[in-house]
Amino acid sequence: MELEKKSELKTTILNLVKEYYFAIHSRKSFLPGKTKISYAGRVYNEKEIVNLVDSALDFWLTAGPYAKKFESKMTKFFGTKKFYLVNSGSSANLIMVSALRSAQFKDQLSPGDEIITPSVTFPTTLTPIIQNRLIPVFVDCEIGTYNIAPVHIEDAVSSKTKAILVPHTLGNPCNMDVIMDIAKRKNLLVLEDACDALGATYDGKLVGTFGSMASLSFYPAHHITMGEGGGIIVNDPRFVKIALSIRDWGRDCCCEPGQNNTCGKRFDGQFGDLPFGYDHKYVYSNLGYNLKVTDMQAAIGLAQFEKLERFVEARRENFNFYYENLKPFEDKLVLPRWEEKANPSWFGFPITVRKGLNINTLIKYLEDAKIETRKVFAGNILKQPGFKGIEHRVYGELMNTNIIMERTFFIGVYPDLTKEMREFVVNKFKSFLSKI
Question: In the predicted model, what is the mean pLDDT of residues 344-355?
Protein backbone atom coordinates (compact mmCIF):
# COMPACT_ATOMS: atom_id res chain seq x y z
CA MET A 1 0.00 0.00 0.00
CA GLU A 2 2.87 2.35 0.82
CA LEU A 3 4.42 1.82 -2.65
CA GLU A 4 1.06 2.51 -4.30
CA LYS A 5 0.71 5.74 -2.31
CA LYS A 6 4.22 6.81 -3.26
CA SER A 7 3.57 6.16 -6.94
CA GLU A 8 0.27 8.00 -6.81
CA LEU A 9 1.79 11.03 -5.09
CA LYS A 10 4.72 11.14 -7.49
CA THR A 11 2.42 11.00 -10.52
CA THR A 12 0.35 13.87 -9.11
CA ILE A 13 3.43 15.97 -8.43
CA LEU A 14 4.99 15.35 -11.85
CA ASN A 15 1.73 16.18 -13.62
CA LEU A 16 1.65 19.46 -11.72
CA VAL A 17 5.27 20.07 -12.74
CA LYS A 18 4.26 19.73 -16.39
CA GLU A 19 1.40 22.14 -15.84
CA TYR A 20 3.77 24.58 -14.16
CA TYR A 21 6.18 24.42 -17.10
CA PHE A 22 3.52 25.32 -19.65
CA ALA A 23 2.22 28.13 -17.43
CA ILE A 24 5.57 29.69 -16.52
CA HIS A 25 8.33 28.54 -18.89
CA SER A 26 6.70 28.66 -22.30
CA ARG A 27 8.33 30.76 -25.04
CA LYS A 28 7.67 34.50 -24.96
CA SER A 29 6.94 36.57 -28.07
CA PHE A 30 9.91 38.07 -29.92
CA LEU A 31 9.96 41.88 -30.01
CA PRO A 32 12.59 43.08 -32.54
CA GLY A 33 15.15 45.36 -30.93
CA LYS A 34 13.75 44.72 -27.45
CA THR A 35 13.99 40.97 -26.94
CA LYS A 36 17.58 39.90 -26.37
CA ILE A 37 18.95 37.49 -28.97
CA SER A 38 21.41 35.54 -26.86
CA TYR A 39 24.68 34.13 -28.12
CA ALA A 40 23.69 30.87 -26.38
CA GLY A 41 21.26 29.50 -23.85
CA ARG A 42 19.53 26.52 -22.35
CA VAL A 43 16.83 24.98 -24.53
CA TYR A 44 14.42 22.74 -22.64
CA ASN A 45 10.82 21.71 -22.11
CA GLU A 46 8.82 20.00 -19.39
CA LYS A 47 10.85 16.79 -19.65
CA GLU A 48 13.98 18.28 -18.06
CA ILE A 49 12.00 19.71 -15.13
CA VAL A 50 10.07 16.47 -14.65
CA ASN A 51 13.34 14.50 -14.54
CA LEU A 52 14.83 17.00 -12.11
CA VAL A 53 11.88 16.83 -9.73
CA ASP A 54 11.68 13.05 -10.06
CA SER A 55 15.31 12.80 -8.98
CA ALA A 56 14.78 15.29 -6.16
CA LEU A 57 11.83 13.29 -4.82
CA ASP A 58 14.03 10.19 -4.63
CA PHE A 59 16.62 12.40 -2.86
CA TRP A 60 19.58 10.54 -4.32
CA LEU A 61 21.89 13.51 -3.92
CA THR A 62 25.15 12.05 -5.21
CA ALA A 63 25.56 10.46 -8.64
CA GLY A 64 23.09 7.58 -8.87
CA PRO A 65 20.65 5.93 -11.30
CA TYR A 66 20.32 8.89 -13.65
CA ALA A 67 24.10 9.36 -13.76
CA LYS A 68 24.70 5.71 -14.58
CA LYS A 69 22.10 5.83 -17.35
CA PHE A 70 23.58 9.03 -18.80
CA GLU A 71 27.12 7.62 -18.75
CA SER A 72 25.89 4.45 -20.42
CA LYS A 73 24.15 6.37 -23.20
CA MET A 74 27.22 8.54 -23.85
CA THR A 75 29.54 5.52 -23.87
CA LYS A 76 27.33 3.93 -26.52
CA PHE A 77 26.98 7.19 -28.48
CA PHE A 78 30.75 7.58 -28.80
CA GLY A 79 31.51 3.87 -29.00
CA THR A 80 34.24 4.44 -26.45
CA LYS A 81 35.83 2.50 -23.59
CA LYS A 82 34.35 4.68 -20.85
CA PHE A 83 32.51 7.93 -20.35
CA TYR A 84 32.71 9.65 -16.97
CA LEU A 85 30.48 12.48 -15.81
CA VAL A 86 32.24 15.36 -14.08
CA ASN A 87 31.15 18.71 -12.72
CA SER A 88 32.43 20.82 -15.64
CA GLY A 89 34.32 20.76 -18.91
CA SER A 90 37.14 22.52 -17.09
CA SER A 91 37.35 19.61 -14.63
CA ALA A 92 37.37 17.21 -17.56
CA ASN A 93 40.42 19.00 -18.97
CA LEU A 94 42.07 18.92 -15.55
CA ILE A 95 41.56 15.16 -15.25
CA MET A 96 42.82 14.50 -18.80
CA VAL A 97 46.08 16.36 -18.34
CA SER A 98 46.57 15.14 -14.76
CA ALA A 99 46.19 11.56 -16.01
CA LEU A 100 49.33 12.03 -18.11
CA ARG A 101 51.24 12.76 -14.89
CA SER A 102 49.91 9.74 -13.01
CA ALA A 103 52.45 7.23 -11.70
CA GLN A 104 50.00 4.55 -12.87
CA PHE A 105 50.62 5.60 -16.48
CA LYS A 106 53.73 3.73 -17.61
CA ASP A 107 54.73 6.55 -19.98
CA GLN A 108 54.17 9.14 -17.26
CA LEU A 109 55.04 12.68 -18.26
CA SER A 110 57.62 14.54 -16.18
CA PRO A 111 57.80 18.19 -15.13
CA GLY A 112 59.16 20.19 -18.06
CA ASP A 113 57.68 17.93 -20.75
CA GLU A 114 55.86 19.84 -23.48
CA ILE A 115 52.31 19.84 -24.79
CA ILE A 116 51.54 21.54 -28.10
CA THR A 117 48.36 23.62 -27.99
CA PRO A 118 46.89 26.62 -29.87
CA SER A 119 47.45 30.19 -28.75
CA VAL A 120 43.75 31.04 -29.24
CA THR A 121 42.15 28.99 -26.52
CA PHE A 122 39.90 28.87 -23.49
CA PRO A 123 41.72 29.44 -20.17
CA THR A 124 40.79 26.12 -18.59
CA THR A 125 42.09 24.21 -21.60
CA LEU A 126 45.52 25.65 -20.84
CA THR A 127 45.53 25.93 -17.03
CA PRO A 128 45.82 22.16 -16.33
CA ILE A 129 49.02 22.05 -18.40
CA ILE A 130 50.54 24.75 -16.22
CA GLN A 131 49.26 23.29 -12.95
CA ASN A 132 50.80 19.91 -13.82
CA ARG A 133 54.19 21.60 -14.32
CA LEU A 134 54.17 20.85 -18.03
CA ILE A 135 55.21 23.38 -20.67
CA PRO A 136 52.63 24.63 -23.19
CA VAL A 137 54.03 25.14 -26.67
CA PHE A 138 51.88 27.68 -28.47
CA VAL A 139 51.15 27.36 -32.17
CA ASP A 140 49.39 29.98 -34.28
CA CYS A 141 45.77 29.52 -35.41
CA GLU A 142 43.97 29.87 -38.71
CA ILE A 143 41.65 32.74 -39.52
CA GLY A 144 38.40 31.19 -40.68
CA THR A 145 38.62 27.86 -38.85
CA TYR A 146 40.03 29.45 -35.65
CA ASN A 147 41.74 26.14 -34.92
CA ILE A 148 45.40 25.31 -34.49
CA ALA A 149 47.24 25.78 -37.80
CA PRO A 150 48.10 22.21 -38.87
CA VAL A 151 51.01 23.31 -41.08
CA HIS A 152 52.98 24.46 -38.01
CA ILE A 153 52.41 21.54 -35.64
CA GLU A 154 55.19 19.21 -36.79
CA ASP A 155 57.83 21.93 -36.81
CA ALA A 156 56.82 22.87 -33.25
CA VAL A 157 57.69 19.37 -31.96
CA SER A 158 60.92 19.12 -29.92
CA SER A 159 62.63 16.30 -28.06
CA LYS A 160 60.61 17.29 -24.97
CA THR A 161 57.21 17.22 -26.70
CA LYS A 162 54.99 14.43 -25.43
CA ALA A 163 51.43 15.41 -26.37
CA ILE A 164 49.09 17.59 -28.43
CA LEU A 165 45.98 19.13 -26.84
CA VAL A 166 43.59 20.63 -29.37
CA PRO A 167 40.23 22.34 -28.85
CA HIS A 168 37.75 22.09 -31.72
CA THR A 169 36.99 25.79 -31.63
CA LEU A 170 33.32 26.80 -31.81
CA GLY A 171 32.35 23.27 -32.82
CA ASN A 172 34.59 23.28 -35.91
CA PRO A 173 36.73 20.10 -36.08
CA CYS A 174 40.49 20.45 -36.38
CA ASN A 175 42.34 18.75 -39.23
CA MET A 176 42.57 15.37 -37.51
CA ASP A 177 44.33 13.73 -40.48
CA VAL A 178 47.37 15.92 -39.94
CA ILE A 179 47.25 15.82 -36.15
CA MET A 180 46.89 12.04 -35.86
CA ASP A 181 49.56 11.43 -38.52
CA ILE A 182 52.06 13.60 -36.65
CA ALA A 183 51.12 11.99 -33.33
CA LYS A 184 51.66 8.50 -34.74
CA ARG A 185 55.00 9.29 -36.34
CA LYS A 186 56.33 11.29 -33.39
CA ASN A 187 54.84 9.00 -30.71
CA LEU A 188 52.74 11.77 -29.18
CA LEU A 189 49.56 11.52 -27.14
CA VAL A 190 46.51 13.42 -28.38
CA LEU A 191 43.89 15.01 -26.14
CA GLU A 192 40.78 16.70 -27.56
CA ASP A 193 38.87 19.55 -25.98
CA ALA A 194 35.49 18.84 -27.56
CA CYS A 195 33.53 21.08 -25.19
CA ASP A 196 32.21 23.17 -28.10
CA ALA A 197 31.81 20.31 -30.52
CA LEU A 198 29.38 17.63 -29.32
CA GLY A 199 28.02 15.88 -32.41
CA ALA A 200 30.66 17.19 -34.82
CA THR A 201 32.41 14.69 -37.08
CA TYR A 202 35.63 14.52 -39.06
CA ASP A 203 35.73 12.05 -41.95
CA GLY A 204 32.52 10.54 -40.59
CA LYS A 205 34.00 9.92 -37.14
CA LEU A 206 32.75 11.73 -34.06
CA VAL A 207 35.02 14.41 -32.65
CA GLY A 208 36.21 13.23 -29.26
CA THR A 209 37.03 9.71 -30.44
CA PHE A 210 40.40 10.42 -32.09
CA GLY A 211 42.64 11.07 -29.10
CA SER A 212 43.36 9.11 -25.93
CA MET A 213 40.76 11.22 -24.09
CA ALA A 214 38.41 14.09 -24.81
CA SER A 215 36.48 16.60 -22.73
CA LEU A 216 32.88 17.81 -23.00
CA SER A 217 31.03 20.65 -21.29
CA PHE A 218 27.38 20.69 -20.29
CA TYR A 219 27.31 24.34 -19.21
CA PRO A 220 24.10 26.12 -20.37
CA ALA A 221 25.88 27.67 -23.37
CA HIS A 222 26.80 24.29 -24.81
CA HIS A 223 24.99 21.79 -27.01
CA ILE A 224 23.24 20.06 -24.13
CA THR A 225 23.20 21.19 -20.52
CA MET A 226 22.74 20.03 -16.99
CA GLY A 227 23.51 23.47 -15.53
CA GLU A 228 27.05 22.82 -14.42
CA GLY A 229 28.56 19.63 -15.76
CA GLY A 230 30.94 17.96 -18.14
CA GLY A 231 32.32 14.64 -19.22
CA ILE A 232 35.42 12.70 -20.19
CA ILE A 233 35.49 10.39 -23.19
CA VAL A 234 38.13 7.74 -22.48
CA ASN A 235 39.25 6.00 -25.68
CA ASP A 236 42.60 4.68 -24.46
CA PRO A 237 42.24 1.75 -22.03
CA ARG A 238 45.38 2.87 -20.19
CA PHE A 239 43.43 5.79 -18.76
CA VAL A 240 40.17 4.07 -17.80
CA LYS A 241 41.13 3.49 -14.16
CA ILE A 242 43.35 6.58 -13.84
CA ALA A 243 40.71 9.08 -15.00
CA LEU A 244 38.13 7.58 -12.64
CA SER A 245 40.57 7.68 -9.75
CA ILE A 246 41.44 11.35 -10.28
CA ARG A 247 37.75 12.23 -10.49
CA ASP A 248 37.00 10.31 -7.28
CA TRP A 249 39.46 11.78 -4.75
CA GLY A 250 42.45 9.91 -6.23
CA ARG A 251 41.36 6.66 -4.61
CA ASP A 252 42.49 3.26 -5.85
CA CYS A 253 39.17 1.55 -5.05
CA CYS A 254 36.58 1.36 -7.83
CA CYS A 255 33.54 0.49 -5.67
CA GLU A 256 30.41 2.47 -6.41
CA PRO A 257 29.16 4.73 -3.58
CA GLY A 258 27.49 2.57 -0.94
CA GLN A 259 29.27 -0.59 -2.12
CA ASN A 260 32.04 -2.41 -0.26
CA ASN A 261 34.62 -5.03 -1.22
CA THR A 262 33.44 -5.69 -4.77
CA CYS A 263 36.96 -6.90 -5.57
CA GLY A 264 36.86 -9.36 -2.67
CA LYS A 265 40.30 -8.19 -1.50
CA ARG A 266 39.46 -5.08 0.48
CA PHE A 267 41.71 -6.03 3.41
CA ASP A 268 44.21 -8.27 1.59
CA GLY A 269 46.46 -5.87 -0.32
CA GLN A 270 49.89 -4.27 -0.04
CA PHE A 271 49.86 -0.67 -1.29
CA GLY A 272 53.05 1.36 -1.21
CA ASP A 273 54.36 1.86 2.31
CA LEU A 274 50.98 1.33 3.96
CA PRO A 275 50.55 -1.54 6.42
CA PHE A 276 49.51 -4.82 4.78
CA GLY A 277 45.75 -5.14 4.63
CA TYR A 278 45.11 -1.38 4.81
CA ASP A 279 41.46 -0.73 3.89
CA HIS A 280 41.45 -0.48 0.08
CA LYS A 281 38.64 2.08 0.23
CA TYR A 282 41.17 4.48 1.75
CA VAL A 283 44.10 3.85 -0.56
CA TYR A 284 44.96 6.81 -2.81
CA SER A 285 47.06 6.16 -5.91
CA ASN A 286 46.69 9.54 -7.61
CA LEU A 287 46.57 13.22 -6.78
CA GLY A 288 42.82 13.51 -7.11
CA TYR A 289 39.77 15.62 -6.43
CA ASN A 290 36.03 15.21 -5.99
CA LEU A 291 34.77 16.26 -9.41
CA LYS A 292 31.51 14.32 -9.64
CA VAL A 293 28.00 15.56 -10.42
CA THR A 294 24.74 15.08 -8.54
CA ASP A 295 22.05 12.75 -9.82
CA MET A 296 19.74 15.75 -10.23
CA GLN A 297 22.14 17.24 -12.77
CA ALA A 298 22.37 13.93 -14.61
CA ALA A 299 18.55 13.75 -14.68
CA ILE A 300 18.46 17.02 -16.62
CA GLY A 301 21.28 15.84 -18.90
CA LEU A 302 19.46 12.64 -19.74
CA ALA A 303 16.41 14.56 -21.00
CA GLN A 304 18.74 16.85 -22.96
CA PHE A 305 20.56 13.92 -24.55
CA GLU A 306 17.34 12.75 -26.17
CA LYS A 307 17.21 16.09 -28.01
CA LEU A 308 20.86 16.10 -29.13
CA GLU A 309 20.31 15.19 -32.78
CA ARG A 310 17.65 17.87 -33.18
CA PHE A 311 19.83 20.44 -31.40
CA VAL A 312 22.82 19.77 -33.67
CA GLU A 313 20.71 20.03 -36.81
CA ALA A 314 19.18 23.31 -35.60
CA ARG A 315 22.65 24.74 -34.99
CA ARG A 316 23.73 23.77 -38.48
CA GLU A 317 20.56 25.26 -39.98
CA ASN A 318 21.06 28.55 -38.13
CA PHE A 319 24.73 28.65 -39.14
CA ASN A 320 23.89 28.04 -42.80
CA PHE A 321 21.28 30.80 -42.77
CA TYR A 322 23.84 33.34 -41.55
CA TYR A 323 26.51 32.05 -43.93
CA GLU A 324 24.34 32.35 -47.04
CA ASN A 325 22.93 35.75 -46.09
CA LEU A 326 26.27 37.31 -45.13
CA LYS A 327 28.14 35.94 -48.14
CA PRO A 328 27.51 39.12 -50.20
CA PHE A 329 29.58 41.03 -47.62
CA GLU A 330 32.78 39.00 -47.89
CA ASP A 331 34.61 42.13 -49.00
CA LYS A 332 34.07 43.42 -45.47
CA LEU A 333 33.85 40.21 -43.41
CA VAL A 334 35.88 37.01 -43.30
CA LEU A 335 33.29 34.27 -43.04
CA PRO A 336 34.03 30.97 -41.28
CA ARG A 337 35.42 27.99 -43.14
CA TRP A 338 35.89 24.32 -42.26
CA GLU A 339 37.96 21.34 -43.38
CA GLU A 340 36.68 19.38 -46.37
CA LYS A 341 36.18 16.26 -44.23
CA ALA A 342 34.58 18.14 -41.33
CA ASN A 343 30.91 18.31 -40.49
CA PRO A 344 30.88 20.88 -37.68
CA SER A 345 28.39 21.01 -34.84
CA TRP A 346 28.51 24.76 -34.54
CA PHE A 347 28.73 26.50 -31.18
CA GLY A 348 28.69 29.94 -32.78
CA PHE A 349 29.11 31.86 -36.02
CA PRO A 350 32.58 33.48 -36.03
CA ILE A 351 33.28 36.63 -38.02
CA THR A 352 36.55 38.48 -38.61
CA VAL A 353 36.21 42.03 -39.83
CA ARG A 354 38.54 43.08 -42.62
CA LYS A 355 40.88 46.06 -42.35
CA GLY A 356 39.05 49.36 -42.49
CA LEU A 357 36.02 48.15 -40.55
CA ASN A 358 35.96 49.02 -36.87
CA ILE A 359 35.01 45.92 -34.90
CA ASN A 360 34.01 47.88 -31.81
CA THR A 361 31.58 50.02 -33.79
CA LEU A 362 29.97 46.93 -35.33
CA ILE A 363 29.73 45.12 -32.00
CA LYS A 364 28.17 48.17 -30.33
CA TYR A 365 25.64 48.45 -33.17
CA LEU A 366 24.63 44.82 -32.70
CA GLU A 367 24.56 44.96 -28.92
CA ASP A 368 22.41 48.11 -29.02
CA ALA A 369 19.95 46.07 -31.09
CA LYS A 370 19.95 43.41 -28.32
CA ILE A 371 22.04 41.01 -30.43
CA GLU A 372 24.59 39.41 -28.12
CA THR A 373 28.18 38.97 -29.28
CA ARG A 374 31.21 37.25 -27.79
CA LYS A 375 34.95 37.28 -28.49
CA VAL A 376 36.62 34.03 -29.49
CA PHE A 377 37.34 33.17 -25.88
CA ALA A 378 40.67 34.48 -24.55
CA GLY A 379 42.05 35.64 -27.89
CA ASN A 380 45.83 35.51 -27.56
CA ILE A 381 45.97 33.79 -24.18
CA LEU A 382 49.47 35.14 -23.53
CA LYS A 383 48.04 38.66 -23.44
CA GLN A 384 45.63 37.76 -20.62
CA PRO A 385 46.57 39.16 -17.16
CA GLY A 386 46.34 35.80 -15.42
CA PHE A 387 48.81 34.16 -17.81
CA LYS A 388 51.57 36.74 -17.66
CA GLY A 389 54.87 35.13 -16.79
CA ILE A 390 53.86 31.49 -17.27
CA GLU A 391 56.59 29.14 -18.44
CA HIS A 392 56.00 28.43 -22.10
CA ARG A 393 57.43 28.17 -25.58
CA VAL A 394 56.10 29.81 -28.74
CA TYR A 395 56.65 28.34 -32.17
CA GLY A 396 56.97 31.02 -34.85
CA GLU A 397 54.97 34.23 -34.82
CA LEU A 398 51.40 34.45 -33.61
CA MET A 399 50.23 36.82 -36.35
CA ASN A 400 46.83 35.23 -36.95
CA THR A 401 46.29 34.85 -33.22
CA ASN A 402 46.67 38.59 -32.74
CA ILE A 403 44.34 39.33 -35.66
CA ILE A 404 41.73 37.01 -34.13
CA MET A 405 42.15 38.77 -30.79
CA GLU A 406 41.71 42.19 -32.37
CA ARG A 407 39.18 41.62 -35.17
CA THR A 408 37.11 38.49 -34.46
CA PHE A 409 33.84 37.89 -32.61
CA PHE A 410 30.93 35.48 -32.88
CA ILE A 411 27.15 35.47 -32.70
CA GLY A 412 24.91 32.64 -31.56
CA VAL A 413 23.43 29.76 -33.51
CA TYR A 414 21.83 27.93 -30.59
CA PRO A 415 18.61 25.96 -31.22
CA ASP A 416 16.16 28.42 -29.68
CA LEU A 417 16.68 31.00 -32.44
CA THR A 418 13.58 31.54 -34.53
CA LYS A 419 13.39 32.48 -38.22
CA GLU A 420 12.21 35.91 -37.15
CA MET A 421 15.26 36.35 -34.91
CA ARG A 422 17.69 35.22 -37.61
CA GLU A 423 16.18 37.58 -40.17
CA PHE A 424 16.41 40.46 -37.71
CA VAL A 425 20.12 39.71 -37.13
CA VAL A 426 20.87 39.54 -40.85
CA ASN A 427 18.98 42.76 -41.53
CA LYS A 428 20.99 44.54 -38.85
CA PHE A 429 24.23 43.38 -40.46
CA LYS A 430 22.99 44.51 -43.87
CA SER A 431 21.92 47.88 -42.50
CA PHE A 432 25.34 48.48 -40.94
CA LEU A 433 27.52 47.13 -43.76
CA SER A 434 25.62 48.78 -46.60
CA LYS A 435 26.58 52.18 -45.22
CA ILE A 436 30.34 51.47 -45.31
Answer: 98
